[in-house]
């Protein structure tokens, strides 16, 4: 599949604060692409740059093969987005809001088409009610209708599950999956929840403190066979040379007592056997899913350090 | 652009706060009309106390529809800028506050188009406000108080003047005055829009625009030569009341009023040009800053 979004070396500073630091990634046509990071990691800033709400400090953004800096209107006419909260005109009805934003997208949909879209997002019988009477979940669904009414090729949802109850989260999840599977749309989805991305995305990027940590296929990145191993031994120097001698890279040595490294889960018994044969005592060995561990350590460093 | 303007006007039309301005104007005009109907003679006595001995005047006939409208405009055109600022000051900042600005800007519409449409919508609102003033202050006053020649009281230099404009020479002056007022009030709309670009709530730009109008109006009224020569010409508020110029009738060398004439057309024309320049600069600056603004709301 060809890449329809190509972000190269994107950086952005607000004063002295670096919000984005040399971020590069690409999204292929038909992807559900997950954008994962803690709150404040730089997800929304990246998405705002992609929607030209924020001027990038440096770097380039190409969408549908066009440069965002010079072809903004063309790109946005084929893109739908909800950035953070789905805010609309509270004093207008859902129907009026949808009609306004459809016309701003350059189309003049019929009443039937607007009602069809409201039916798609489950708001058919509330279309005349003012948005100020809507729950957060209903606003989110209306936001999705607004982002889809002009039939865009690319849809961007920034934290779509924020503020929703479990039923609302499940509804939105199903809606996004339907968009991808039934309508073949390319979806970029940001979240601070790994489980959200894992359930919906086929490719993902993790960013932290404005930097790209990793990008790739979700199935590979979250491969249950790859584990982060934490070994406790009183003889760390001998253990270190034994393990590195096997071609394994030690990622961290903690307090002269722990060694941390990535290893295929199936290779752990052989390594333990080798350490025992060498007479290196093992006090504790603990294997965790590596990417999950990494992400949890970002969100809760005290518990996963 | 036309579609965007339609959308903008629809949003203004649907907002309850839009009608506050029309209700306020109606209330003020009705209070004026009631007060003058009930006791207009006392007002005329006060106004004419220094000249009563000089000439005879039918005070009942002097309080006619044209005179009433002039009195009302004199008062209202100082307050109306606040009503215009209420709408124009909310144009961008209100969208930012509601969170709809970022949704708008994810649509294939340029930021310059948004500024122009917001400005045009504020301009149309200003026109409608003035049209409503014309209906209530002029036509309703003509219905209530009748039609007759109009007296204009004016202080020029050290002397007070009373000018009489015949009833068949007045209506066009009002149309011209309302047209001038529309341009003057559009400067306020452009100023409020300019402040609106920088704010994320409506209060700031509205208060800022109104404060500038108040401060500049106060300075414009300081009759000290140094202010008159070096400050006043650069304050837009000095030109806001230029509409009155249409009622200062021209005279021949023997001081006889010339029907259909204006005393100082060049001054009105210059004032209009200065006001138009303010509008162009303020709207241009709004677009310039808005195009470079990071939308973080």
Indicate the topology:
The complex is a heterodimer of chains A (305) and B (297).
Chain A: E1 3-14, E2 17-28, E3 32-36, H1 43-50, E4 58-63, E5 66-67, H2 72-76, E6 79-82, H3 94-104, H4 111-120, H5 136-148, E7 154-158, H6 166-183, E8 186-191, H7 194-200, E9 203-208, E10 211-217, H8 218-221, E11 226-232, H9 236-245, E12 250-254, E13 258-264, H10 268-277, E14 284-289, H11 290-299, H12 301-304
Parallel strand pairs in A: 3-8, 3-9, 6-7, 7-8
Antiparallel strand pairs in A: 1-2, 1-4, 4-5, 9-10, 11-13, 11-14, 12-13
Chain B: H1 2-14, H2 18-47, H3 59-62, H4 65-88, H5 93-98, H6 100-104, H7 111-145, E1 150-156, E2 159-165, H8 171-198, H9 203-220, H10 225-230, H11 265-291
Task: Give an account of the 3D structure.
The complex is a heterodimer of chains A (305) and B (297). Chain A has 305 residues and is of the alpha/beta class. Chain A has 2 domains: 3-217, P-loop containing nucleotide triphosphate hydrolases (Rossmann fold, 3-Layer(aba) Sandwich), CATH 3.40.50.300; 226-304, Alpha-Beta Plaits (2-Layer Sandwich), CATH 3.30.70.120. Helices cover 36% and strands 30% of the residues of chain A. Chain A contains 12 helices and 14 strands. Chain A has helices spanning 43-50, 72-76, 94-104, 111-120, 136-148, 166-183, 194-200, 218-221, 236-245, 268-277, 290-299, 301-304, and strands at residues 3-14, 17-28, 32-36, 58-63, 66-67, 79-82, 154-158, 186-191, 203-208, 211-217, 226-232, 250-254, 258-264, 284-289. A 6-stranded mixed beta sheet of chain A has the order 6-7-8-3-9-10, with helices on both faces. The longest helix of chain A has 18 residues, at 166-183. The mean pLDDT of chain A is 84. Chain B has 297 residues and is mostly helical. Chain B has one domain (2-291). In chain B, 66% of the residues lie in helices and 5% in strands. Chain B is built from 11 helices and 2 strands. Chain B has a two-stranded antiparallel ribbon with strand order 1-2. In chain B, strand 1 and strand 2 form a beta hairpin. In chain B, helix 7 (111-145) runs antiparallel to helix 11. The longest helix of chain B has 35 residues, at 111-145. The model of chain B has no long low-confidence stretch (mean pLDDT 86). The chains are: A alpha/beta (305), B mainly alpha (297). Chain A binds chain B through residues 14, 48, 51-55, 72-74, 76-77, 79-92, 96, 100-101, 103-106, 143, 146, and chain B through 3-4, 6-7, 10-11, 14-16, 98-100, 102-110, 292, 294-296.
């Amino acid at each position: 599949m060809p890449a329809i979004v190509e972000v190269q070396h994107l950086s952005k500073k607000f004063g002295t604060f670096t919000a984005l630091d040399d971020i590069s990634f690409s999204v292929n046509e038909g992807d559900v692409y997950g954008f994962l990071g803690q709150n404040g990691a730089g997800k929304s800033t990246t998405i705002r740059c992609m929607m030209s709400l924020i001027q990038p400090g440096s770097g380039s953004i190409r969408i549908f093969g066009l440069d965002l800096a010079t072809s903004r209107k063309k790109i946005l006419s084929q893109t739908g987005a909800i950035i953070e909260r789905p805010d609309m005109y509270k004093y207008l009805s859902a129907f009026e809001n949808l009609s306004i934003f459809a016309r701003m997208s350059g189309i003049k949909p019929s009443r039937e088409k607007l009602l069809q879209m409201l039916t798609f997002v489950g708001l058919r019988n509330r279309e005349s009610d003012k948005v100020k009477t809507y729950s957060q979940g209903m606003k989110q669904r209306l936001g999705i209708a607004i982002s889809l009414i002009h039939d865009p090729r690319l849809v961007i949802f920034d934290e779509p599950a924020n503020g929703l109850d479990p039923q609302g989260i499940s509804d939105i999840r199903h809606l996004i999956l339907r968009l991808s599977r039934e309508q073949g749309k390319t979806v970029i989805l940001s979240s601070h929840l790994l489980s959200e991305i894992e359930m919906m995305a086929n490719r993902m990027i993790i960013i932290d403190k404005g930097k790209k940590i990793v990008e790739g296929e979700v199935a590979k990145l979250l491969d249950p066979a790859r584990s982060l191993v934490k070994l406790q031994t009183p003889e760390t120097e001998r253990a270190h040379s034994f393990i590195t001698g096997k071609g394994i890279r030690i990622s961290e040595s903690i307090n002269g007592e722990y060694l941390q490294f990535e290893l295929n889960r199936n290779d752990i018994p052989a390594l333990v056997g080798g350490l025992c044969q060498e007479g290196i005592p093992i006090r504790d060995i603990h294997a965790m899913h590596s990417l999950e561990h990494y992400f949890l350590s970002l969100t809760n460093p005290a518990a996963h350090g | 652009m036309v579609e965007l303007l339609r959308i903008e006007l629809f949003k203004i039309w649907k907002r309850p706060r839009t009608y506050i301005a029309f209700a306020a104007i109606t209330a003020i005009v009705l209070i004026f009309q009631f007060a003058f109907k009930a006791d207009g003679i006392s007002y005329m006595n006060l106004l004419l106390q220094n000249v009563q001995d000089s000439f005879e005047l039918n005070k009942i006939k002097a309080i006619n529809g044209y005179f009433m409208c002039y009195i009302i405009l004199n008062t209202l055109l100082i307050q109306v800028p606040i009503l215009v600022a209420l709408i124009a000051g909310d144009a961008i900042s209100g969208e930012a506050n509601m969170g709809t600005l970022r949704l708008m800007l994810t649509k294939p519409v340029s930021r310059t188009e948004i500024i122009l449409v917001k400005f045009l919508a504020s301009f149309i609102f200003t026109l409608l406000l003035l049209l409503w003033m014309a209906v209530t202050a002029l036509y309703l006053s003509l219905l209530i108080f009748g039609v007759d020649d109009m007296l204009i009281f004016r202080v020029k230099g050290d002397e007070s003047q009373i000018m009489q404009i015949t009833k068949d020479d007045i209506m066009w002056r009002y149309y011209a005055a309302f047209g001038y007022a529309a341009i003057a009030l559009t400067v306020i709309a452009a100023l409020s829009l300019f402040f609106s670009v920088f704010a994320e709530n409506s209060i700031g730009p509205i208060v800022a625009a109104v404060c500038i109008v108040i401060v500049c109006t106060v300075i414009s009224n300081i009759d000290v030569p140094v202010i008159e020569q070096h400050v006043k010409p650069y304050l837009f508020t000095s030109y806001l009341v230029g509409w009155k110029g249409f009622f200062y009738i021209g005279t021949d060398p023997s001081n006889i009023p010339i029907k259909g004439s204006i005393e100082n057309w060049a001054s009105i024309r210059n004032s209009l040009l200065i006001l138009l320049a303010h509008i162009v600069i303020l709207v241009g600056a709004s677009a310039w800053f808005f195009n470079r603004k990071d939308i973080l709301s």
